[in-house]
Amino acid sequence: VRPLPEQVESLCRTIDAPPRLIAHLTLVHDFAVSLVEEIQSVLPELSFDEKSVFFGAATHDIGKSLFRSELVAPGSGHEFAGERLLLEHGVEARLARFARTHAAWQKDASLTIEDLLVTLADTAWKGKRVADLETLISDRIAAATEKEVWDVYILIDDALQKLTAGADERLAWQAKFPV
Ligand SMILES: [Fe+2]
Questions:
Q1: Which of 27, 29, 139, 173 has its CA 20 to 30 A from that of 167?
Q2: For the whole model, what pTM was predicted?
Q3: Which segments of 125-166 does DSSP mark as H helices, in order?
């Protein structure tokens, strides 16, 4: 598993992030890197800011350090709190936003491909497939590359089938870390 970016590791130490959260961020960041590599290999014409996707994946749930119950139960308190926390620690707004947008794909039509890729990584790392989300991303990628939506959907589907293979192992690894 790839380590978190240095800046994020040091922030996690500063805010005393719980081990389960660090493990989760590590896995989603690692998955996002693999996902981006896969997408770039099958859709080389798609241009997006991969670094912000990696940063977003590495920090998306950082607000759960303040809403620790949301590490084990659903809740949305961590979303705005995470964005605020990142801003307070000097992170630029365009990078802090992922803490809020990673859960907003059904209610915010202004999300970018980068936002949606972080959301997809946060969904698919554990083997979960969400057809509406994959369709939305395929629509956006098709519009950006002038490809047919269906062709893009198939490429994304193939990539996810390959990448979700290790999901059970990832879930078991994350569960070993205390909340
Ligand atoms: Fe997450």
A1: 139
A2: 0.98
A3: 131-145, 149-163
What is the signed CA dihedral for 100, 105, 121, 79, rounded to 10 degrees?
20
pLDDT in tens, 64-112: 999 999 999 999 999 999 999 999 999 999 999 999 999 999 999 999 9
| Position 83, amino acid | E
Q: Tell me which amino acid residue 13 is.
A: R
Burial-class residue 24 by CB neighbours within 10 Å (0-12, 13-18, 19+): buried
Residue 28 Cα to ligand 1 midpoint, Å, equals 7
Distance 59 CA to ligand 1 centre (A): 9
> How much distance in Å is there from the Cα of 148 to the middle of ligand 1?
30
Instruction: Count other Cβ atoms within 10 Å, centred on residue 45.
Output: 10
| Residue 24 Cα to ligand 1 middle (Å) | 7
Show the tokens assigned to 141.
């990628």
Ligand 1 centre to CA of 116 (Å) is: 13
User: In sequence order, what DSSP letters do the residues of 23-69 get, joined into one string?
Assistant: HHHHHHHHHHHHHHHHHHHH-TT----HHHHHHHHHHTTGGGGT-GG
141 CA to centre of ligand 1 in angstroms: 23
CA–centroid distance, residue 19 to ligand 1 (Å) = 14
Task: Find the distance separating the first CA and the last CA of the chain, reported in whole Å.
Answer: 20
